[in-house]
Amino acid sequence: MRLAIVYDTKTGNTAKMAEYLIEGFTAVDGAEAKAFPITAVDEEYVKASDALIVGTPTYNGYLTARMKAWLESTPAKLNVAGKPGGAYATAAFIHGGGDLAIQCILTHLLVDGMMVYSSGQAKGMPVIHLGPVAIAPDLDAFADLFRIYGKRMAEQVACIV
To answer: pLDDT 10s per residue in the chain (161 long)?
Structure first.
């Protein structure tokens, strides 16, 4: 089973969190994952993937303009309909809009026919309602949260594929 992660990043924070997602996803037997910056997406890998997670830094309480443009023009062409999808964000402040950025991404994934998954309350602590948000500058404090989200996504994908 295969996961593609597509992210935008300006400072490297969102890229770093993608690596923690990969660690969690690949902890499940038979799982593989790759992360791609929005400027170098391997579209064939995404098309062949069983799930997609999209990540963005948060600026002005929202996702980046580059990520919004990508979401409006690309995923539907990558055979994502019917596949599990998720989102994550990085932010400078706990009240900086990470959840709003995630909601926007999830809306786009739903419009493209994806089945969004976060694990919600169903898996217990930590509860991940929409998707994980890492707050800078202490990104490593959120590493386990991102690993758990990646693992939960892999377990859900395994139930579907």
So the answer is: 999 999 999 999 999 999 999 999 999 999 999 999 999 999 999 999 999 999 999 999 999 999 999 999 998 899 999 999 999 999 999 999 999 999 999 999 999 999 999 999 989 999 999 999 999 999 999 999 999 999 999 999 999 98
Picking from 65, 2, 62, 81, the residue whose alpha carbon sits closest to that of residue 36 is: 2
Query: In 10 A of CB 154, how many CB atoms?
Result: 26
Tokens of 107: 């809306």
Residue 145's domain comprises: 2-160
Given a contact cutoff of 8 angstroms between Cβ atoms, the answer to whether 99 and 68 are in contact is: no
Domain count, the chain: 1
User: What CATH number did the domain enclosing 54 receive?
Assistant: 3.40.50.360
82: amino acid identity, one letter? G
> Which pair of tokens denotes residue 129?
């309602």
- Sign of the torsion formed by the C-alpha atoms of 116, 121, 124 and 130: positive
